[in-house]
Amino acid sequence: MSNVAAVSSAVNSTVSSSSTSSSKLVSEDTFLKLLVTQLENQDPLNPQDSAQFVSQLASFSSLEQMSSMNSSMETVLETSVTSLIGKTATVLDSSNTAGYTTGTITGIQYYSDGPAVKINGTDYLFSNVQNIS
What we know:
Blueprint: H1 3-21, H2 28-40, H3 50-82, E1 88-92, E2 100-111, E3 114-119, E4 122-125, E5 129-132
Antiparallel strand pairs: 1-2, 1-5, 2-3, 3-4
Helix pairs in contact: 1-2
């Protein structure tokens, strides 16, 4: 089996087994399996540049840290949004002729694209909040 075919086979089997066990396309485990397969199937007379492997590891580490930071920021946002209940807010509202609505935040609703504040019985995405007092 050629080196390319071996690595390609490992990629296909690793990604398909990874995607069934997790919603992530490439997990840390998948990355390490690919790296080991790449090392096992390289030509001993013409090895890969070690700088490439270090670069790949650094890129993966950076991506993992950014993902972790994103998760932490979402937690902070969710925690801070709940403290807004009872405060007066102004939100963008295209259905209002003025273009905005002002009212008291009476609740919080969480959607897939982020939290929403309930003002006057209507949910507005948190990203549409213009002012809180």
